[in-house]
From TrEMBL:
Family: Belongs to the NAD(P)-dependent epimerase/dehydratase family.
GO biological processes: galactose metabolic process
Functional pathway: Carbohydrate metabolism; galactose metabolism
Enzyme Commission number(s): 5.1.3.2
InterPro entries in UniProt: Epimerase_deHydtase (IPR001509), NAD(P)-bd_dom_sf (IPR036291), UDP_G4E (IPR005886)
UniProt keywords, alphabetically: Carbohydrate metabolism, Galactose metabolism, Isomerase, NAD
Protein name according to UniProt: UDP-glucose 4-epimerase
Necessary cofactors: NAD(+)
Subunit structure: Homodimer.
Protein's gene: galE
KW NAD (keyword) present: yes
A Pfam cross-reference name: Epimerase
Keyword Manganese attributed: no
GO cellular component: cytosol
């Protein structure tokens, strides 16, 4: 049985991917330091999982801990989710973001190299496209970073590409043996929750992202949504994004991992639906799914936001045989089930 190490395993996207990987027949071992997650996730996963939940509490910046984990479990591949992800916080605490996101990535790659495990699936983001010049976004569109968080994703991708360059040089110089294979997955806007309602997104403090905020308004934890900008050049004036169900995203990781294990080479692909929805589209869909009203007020634009962003998902279909299946109504229904069954998240 092939063993896969998940870093940041107790987090939102990783916890859903954990179940998808187990269902696909992989042995999964998770590591997390709970910097932005709760140990309760592991209990919930144990209820849902088709196989035992194997977990080690570890910080990916701790080389000695990683050596222990690699030595004990001997994974064939790593899915690297561990990172901080709040854009605003990255602007006020850039060093913490560079240390954790880039230090953690380099440390994980070094441990992989020491243990001869050279396959990594990396959590990248559509944030690497900066302000899109053309839509839909193809993987060959220009990239840029507008904040330190985005810079860590751009640089993370670069680090993995550079490992490939170093391998190519070594092979040209006569070196044989296995080489790095990496998959950079550029997620668009992950939303929704597991259909059981037992795991989902549980942001700490005020949610930064739209759907968790809307969910907390619908459940009565917050009075109303502030809609950031009503004067964008979009059909209804509000920002347009490519929302993707976290379950579809999880399946995208399974497909990427399978590809790395079966086929030589590395890849960078979008994981999105290819369909854009506005803030008000999402509010209306959430009201329909929850049967609750979601009061909102249009306020000033949020600095750094782009008007519209959606994926061209064709490359992922071609290379991975993967495409998103679940629609916006289903994203809202599953988010709502999670939210109203767990009004205060995991606690
Ligand atoms: P999350 O915060 O729920 O999950 C990240 C997990 O990593 C958390 O459980 C956290 O405790 C853990 N972690 C952080 N630093 C760690 C460290 N040093 N050692 C061990 N564990 C550590 O976030 P998520 O939304 O599930 O995101 C997962 C990945 O996907 C991140 O890399 C994020 O940047 C990326 N991403 C997320 C989105 C999004 O909108 N959610 C979009 C694009 C990319
Ligand atoms: C979506 C839309 C907002 C909150 C961010 C990161 C990106 C990626 C995903 C990690 C926009 C509007 C939001 C609110 C609102 N993360 N909005 N009121 O900005 O597309 O992407 O998360 O990689 O890097 O930047 O997602 O959910 O914050 O916003 O009106 O209270 O909702 O203006 O149009 P975004 P989001």
């Amino acid at each position: 049985m092939t063993t896969v190490l998940l870093t940041g395993a107790a987090g939102y996207i990783a916890s859903h991917t954990w179940l998808a990987l187990q269902r696909a027949g992989y042995r999964v071992v998770g590591v997390d330091n709970f910097a932005n997650s709760s140990p309760v996730v592991l209990e919930r996963l144990a209820e849902l999982a088709p196989a035992p939940i194997e977990f080690e509490r570890a910080d990916v910046c701790d080389a000695a801990m990683l050596d222990e984990v690699f030595g004990s479990y001997r994974p064939a591949a790593v899915v690297h989710f561990a990172a901080y992800k709040a854009v605003g916080e990255s602007v006020s605490q850039p060093l913490a973001y560079y240390r954790n996101n880039l230090g953690g990535l380099v440390n994980t790659c070094e441990a992989m190299k020491r243990h001869g495990c050279l396959r990594m699936v990396f959590s990248s983001s559509a944030t690497v496209y900066g302000a899109p010049e053309q839509l839909p976004l193809r993987e060959d569109a220009p990239t840029s970073a507008t904040n330190p968080y985005g810079a860590t994703k751009l640089m993370g991708e670069q680090i993995l590409r550079d490992l490939g360059v170093a391998d190519a040089l070594a092979i040209k110089g006569g070196a044989a043996g296995p080489a790095w294979q990496t998959a950079c997955l550029r997620y668009f806007n992950p939303v929704g929750a597991h259909e059981s309602g037992r795991i989902g997104e549980d942001p700490r403090g005020t949610p930064n992202n739209l759907m968790p905020y809307v969910a907390q308004v619908a459940v009565g934890r917050r009075d109303k949504l502030s809609v950031f900008g009503g004067d964008y050049p979009t059909p209804d004036g509000t920002g347009v994004r490519d929302y993707i169900h976290v379950t579809d995203l999880a399946e995208g990781h399974v497909a990427a991992l399978r590809r790395l294990l079966d086929t030589p080479g590395s890849l960078t692909v979008n994981l999105g639906t290819g369909q854009g929805y506005s803030v008000l589209d999402l509010v209306r869909a959430y009201e329909a799914a929850s049967g609750r009203s979601v009061p909102y007020e249009i306020v000033a634009r949020r600095p750094g936001d782009v008007a519209a962003c959606w994926a061209d998902p064709a490359l992922a279909r071609e290379l991975l045989g993967w495409q998103a299946r679940l629609d916006l109504a289903r994203m809202c229904e599953d988010s709502w089930r999670w939210q109203h069954l767990n009004p205060h998240g995991f606690n």
